[in-house]
Amino acid sequence: MSISMIGIDHSMAPIDIRALFAFTRKNAGEAMEKTKEQPGINGCIILSTCNRLEVWASVDEETEISLYEELCRLKKIQNREYEKYFIKREGHDAVEHLFYLASGLKSQILGEDQILTQVKDALGIAREHFTTDGALEVLFRMAVTAGKKIKTEVPFSHGNPSVIHQAIQMLEKQGYSVKEKVCMVIGNGEMGKVAAQTLMESGADVTVTVRQYRSGMVSIPFGCKRINYGERMEYLPKCDLVVSATASPNFTLREELFEDLELEKTIVLIDLAVPRDIEPEVGRFEGVTLYDMDSFKTDEKPAELQEHLEAAGKIVREQMDEFFKWLEGKNLIPRIQEIKENAVNDFNLRIMKPLKNTHMEEQEKEQLLSAVDRAMEKVVNKMLFGLRDSMNEQAFLECVAGLEKTYEK
């Protein structure tokens, strides 16, 4: 068994390319089920966020499969030109990537912890659709554990940043403060709530749109007002800033809606969705400034954040070592089981002759042999796993190989 993944993210592809391969929660589950049906694939997890799409699979070692081709089949995409935007990782490289990713060390905003929730959610969806297996289950769980450990033991000095934090900081550098600005957030999912909460904490007057059919069943951040989604264009001219962050496959703000719209003042639009929420052509209207997810890219690392990276990396490496020990042990189990069976059979052959010369009843002999077999298995287990814990990996593998040769015919 081997672990493979393919991925596309904000560092490799623009937003419109990423949008082609994005999944909602519902169709991610369906896609994982279809992928796991392919011969040789034992498990599958799809991680789809605003900034990245990753397809993970545990695959039989003798199986040759292209996860990119499988993804294109799921998305009904026949053009191979997009393959250049993807990266493929296998084995150690794939495992290392996930651990660093879940720890927030590969995010567009270094150290953000939303990705930790997203990795955990991806595992949860896979469980719901019965597409994970032992290897992926343990890998994702241990990666999440590493992320939590870093969050607890290595608190990044600038708190819990997100894209909206970075957007506000960028606007402030340009002389635009959101304090006392009239803001509307379209969408009340995870990203929308973070945006609304952040704007409110920055001193803005925030209104959140809620779908009418759900208006009585949802909560919005404390201190925010609400309007029905259908009223957004009536409220928009009053706004200084609008954030759209939904999982909708359709535009929430379209070009045609702005054709005859009279704005009371200049307005900033921030599109935090992938696929896009705001039609790009909206940005051509006078008085409108439009930003999307890729507008906030930066290579800048705060000095105080840089100081924490070494400690975070140490935790990641420790957790990775634990995973590889588990994986190696998992792969060795069939070999250890065979050694144990051979040892028990060898012992039984040696004890049968003296046992025959006893005056015990046959039933008593069978009971004795059964008890001896169980005891023998425990002794062999204790010796083998004792060796594993007291020797380095290479020496232990040599011991296992030597024991296997002892019973070669």
UniProtKB/TrEMBL annotation:
Pathway: Porphyrin-containing compound metabolism; protoporphyrin-IX biosynthesis; 5-aminolevulinate from L-glutamyl-tRNA(Glu): step 1/2
Sequence positions that bind substrate: T49, C50, N51, R52, S107, E112, D113, Q114, Q118
Pfam families on file: GlutR_dimer, GlutR_N, Shikimate_DH
InterPro entries recorded: 4pyrrol_synth_GluRdtase, 4pyrrol_synth_GluRdtase_dimer, 4pyrrol_synth_GluRdtase_N, GluRdtase_dimer_dom_sf, GluRdtase_N_sf, NAD(P)-bd_dom_sf, Shikm_DH/Glu-tRNA_Rdtase
An example molecular function term from Gene Ontology annotations: glutamyl-tRNA reductase activity
Keyword NADP: yes
Record-linked Gene3D superfamilies: Glutamyl-tRNA reductase, N-terminal domain, NAD(P)-binding Rossmann-like Domain
EC number: 1.2.1.70
Catalyses which reaction(s): (S)-4-amino-5-oxopentanoate + tRNA(Glu) + NADP(+) = L-glutamyl-tRNA(Glu) + NADPH + H(+)
Domain of life: Bacteria
Tetrapyrrole biosynthesis glutamyl-tRNA reductase dimerisation domain location: 312-401
List of residues binding NADP(+): G187, N188, G189, E190, M191, G192
UniProt-annotated catalytic positions: C50 (nucleophile)
Keywords, ordered alphabetically: NADP, Oxidoreductase, Porphyrin biosynthesis
Residue numbers marked as site, Important for activity: H97
Function (record text): Catalyzes the NADPH-dependent reduction of glutamyl-tRNA(Glu) to glutamate 1-semialdehyde (GSA).
Other comment: During catalysis, the active site Cys acts as a nucleophile attacking the alpha-carbonyl group of tRNA-bound glutamate with the formation of a thioester intermediate between enzyme and glutamate, and the concomitant release of tRNA(Glu). The thioester intermediate is finally reduced by direct hydride transfer from NADPH, to form the product GSA.
Domain notes from UniProt: Possesses an unusual extended V-shaped dimeric structure with each monomer consisting of three distinct domains arranged along a curved 'spinal' alpha-helix. The N-terminal catalytic domain specifically recognizes the glutamate moiety of the substrate. The second domain is the NADPH-binding domain, and the third C-terminal domain is responsible for dimerization.
Subunit note: Homodimer.
Family classification: Belongs to the glutamyl-tRNA reductase family.
The protein, known as: Glutamyl-tRNA reductase
Native species: Blautia faecis
Name of the gene encoding the protein in the UniProt record: hemA
